[in-house]
């Protein structure tokens, strides 16, 4: 079971690269960088710096997109980063929510994502690829594994069908996780492919007081419910009053610059009881022993890796790294 960490590129690239090196030295297996051009430094530039600063950890994008970045551009820059970290770079792609909406664009449709991945994969394989009336190929191609982020059934099956791996945005609640892994493998089976690698994304905090610390998760809980996750939440006993329109928070609920204000804006829709249930079921909040046990459960459910996130987009996860490295990793056995 591989343990990864989300690292928002919220600081100068040398500082983010130094953090990646610290994560490697602390025993983490993967570092993942999100892509939102107005919020953070360029994800591929940061990934390149992190690749140069490390020698063992997997470096990945979680995730970029084929809307703000043309697929040919994605292929070229992925090839470049992969050359800096042979065998250690993973290209994570998704619909592009936090990249596309702030600049007035729409997330990828299923067909658009399928076509974009096909173009990127073809170019990285050295194939001739069509662009309207012309064709082109990438000089000096390098194979790069492509992982697809997904939450809904269609994109989960798509990930199983076309990607080398799936990044599951369903959290670690047993029933939704089992459903998500099943959809991925259904897609793989339909395409005649072997089992697809799966990484589970989960917010994490080592704490002895879940009731106190769960409150900070309210914007994440409401955003998940509003974006099609209400049924899955209810299945796990998390009941949210979903408004027709999300609270007006800049730039959005999951990346709010004023996090306390975003939490307060969610109070009418997410009760304290509901968010504690969300923390316990979908997230990795609890003591080190509790988190280690939940990670083991996720592994038994079919996950190959967990991708830990802290709450917040504009600070490096120093506390999370320290506590996971010193308290959780030793409970997971030799690495």
Describe this structure in words.
It is a single chain. This protein has 2 domains: 2-205 and 287-332, TIM Barrel; 208-284, no CATH class. The protein is built from 13 helices and 11 strands. It has helices at 13-26, 43-53, 71-84, 97-100, 110-124, 153-162, 174-190, 210-213, 218-235, 259-266, 272-281, 288-300, 318-328, and strands at 2-6, 30-33, 58-61, 89-93, 129-131, 134-136, 146-150, 165-168, 197-206, 284-286, 305-309. The strands form 2 sheets. It has an 8-stranded parallel barrel with strand order 1-2-3-4-7-8-9-11, surrounded by 7 helices. A two-stranded antiparallel ribbon has the order 5-6. Helix 6 packs across helix 7 (174-190).
Extract low-pLDDT stretches.
none
Taken as a percent bin, the fraction of beta residues is 15-25%
What level of helicity do the residues show?
40-55%
Task: Look at the structure and name the CATH superfamily of the largest domain.
Answer: Luciferase-like domain
- Order of helix and strand elements from N to C terminus: EHEHEHEHHEEEHEHEHHHHEHEH
Number of strands: 11
The CATH topology of the largest domain comes to: TIM Barrel
The name of the CATH architecture of the largest domain is Alpha-Beta Barrel
The strands making up the biggest β-sheet line up spatially as 1-2-3-4-7-8-9-11
Give a quick account of the main beta sheet: strands, pairing sense, barrel closure. 8 strands, parallel, barrel
- Summing up helix and strand content along with how strands pair, one would put the structural category as alpha/beta
Distance from N terminus to C terminus (CA atoms, Å) equals 9 Å
CATH hierarchy, class of the largest domain: Alpha Beta
Mean pLDDT: 96
